[in-house]
Specification:
The strands form four sheets. Strands 4-1-3-2-5 form a five-stranded mixed beta sheet, with helices on one face. The relative contact order is 0.11. The termini are far apart. By secondary structure, it is of the alpha/beta class. It is built from twelve helices and 14 strands. The chain has three domains: 111 residues, Alpha-Beta Plaits; 122 residues, 3-Layer(aba) Sandwich (Oxidized Rhodanese, domain 1), CATH 3.40.250.10; 66 residues. It is 31% helix and 19% strand.
Length: 345
């Protein structure tokens, strides 16, 4: 395959139509590994060629420090994909986590080269990945909770808003680069306590635990495999869940339900809801929680302004947007909070 073809050549609508017409079952899988990688451009190209042949869709980040991947793959190709990973010296012994609930997760393959596989943007002097937290399985984690350990959510506010572990401290931040200084501040009085960290699939806890250990925390622990693995384990072993609500996921599904608890409210009518949507107005596209009734009322938009804007002809939309005569929630603030979406009905 020539290098110029190492990207998707169809538009979103075409790709989704192809996906909807598939006659086989797909599985959504996530995995990561902190490992030294070199020749990133060549690696990116090799992975794209190899995984494209297996009809893999997904979002993959590679950096000098490792790989972080969320993919959708035909079930019939999963064993071959696992074999290819195991034969790669860098990617051997990677643990694959499958989704709790399937759905249309990805519709194209994207592999990007990044500075970090999780964008914390902290100095290398503030952590040592050779000194990470203890990995606890679901049983050990639940026992530690029962014994009164301090639980900290290593995710963003919009994730914990719809689901979290009971009693967890949830940082009031929306960007990964703000997370580690914030959790250090939130935990300042618990340096000698047993700390339990958790995130979606485990990757964010790796560097976060190393960061806390570097800053003097004595007993740092993390949930092995994250919320995804925890949900599988408690279901398989018929154990009550200490995680309640939805697990937010970074793909087209936007969430996997773990328990029936609804912790959040629609950002428009304030009634119970935990359904995340992106505003249908592509000039806005802000992430917010919207119940089904409001979705219908506002045509999937976050405001009356966006609802009215998408009714305009495309050329007029472009003209108004360029002149700056229209500003949307996404331009007004980078914060993802309920107050952004309040509407005068």
């Amino acid at each position: 395959m020539k290098k110029k073809y190492l990207y998707n050549q169809k538009n979103k609508e075409e790709l989704i139509k192809i996906l909807e017409n598939e006659k086989f079952k797909r599985v959504t899988v996530s995995f990561y590994k902190y490992v030294e990688l070199n020749n990133l451009e060549n690696l990116r190209d090799d992975l794209f060629i190899s995984w494209n042949k297996l009809n893999v869709f997904g979002r993959i980040y590679i950096a000098k420090e490792g790989i972080n991947a969320q993919i959708s793959i035909p079930e019939k190709n999963l064993s071959k994909f696992q074999l290819e990973l195991s034969l790669n010296k860098k990617f051997g012994n990677i643990h694959l986590k499958t989704a709790i609930k399937e759905g249309m997760s990805f519709y194209k393959l994207t592999i990007k080269i990044k500075n970090e596989i999780v964008a914390y943007k902290i100095s290398h002097n503030e952590y040592d990945l050779n000194k990470r937290g203890n990995h606890l399985n679901y049983k050990q984690y639940n026992k530690a909770i029962d014994n009164g350990a301090i639980i900290i959510d290593i995710r963003n506010h919009y994730e914990s808003e719809v689901g979290k572990f009971k009693g967890a401290i949830t940082p009031n931040i929306d960007r990964s680069e703000d997370l580690l200084p914030e959790i250090k501040k939130l935990l300042k009085n618990y340096r000698n306590e047993k700390i339990l960290m958790y995130c979606t699939g485990g990757i964010r806890c790796e560097k976060a635990s190393a960061y806390l250990i570097h800053h003097g925390f004595k007993d740092v622990n993390q949930l092995k495999g994250g919320i995804i693995q925890y949900a599988h384990d408690i279901k398989k072993n018929n154990v009550g869940s200490n995680f309640i609500g939805k697990n937010y996921v970074f793909d087209h599904r936007l969430g996997e339900r773990i328990t029936e608890n609804i912790l959040s409210k629609c950002h428009q009518c304030k009634k119970p809801s935990d359904d995340h949507n992106n505003c249908v107005n592509q000039a806005c596209h802000i992430l917010f929680i919207q119940c089904k009734k409001c979705y219908k009322k506002y045509n999937g938009c976050c405001s009356k302004e966006c609802k009215n804007f998408i009714k305009l002809p495309k050329e007029e939309q472009k003209k108004l947007f360029k002149t700056g005569n229209y500003t949307f929630n996404a331009q007004k603030s980078d914060r993802i909070k309920p107050k952004l979406y309040e509407i005068n009905n």
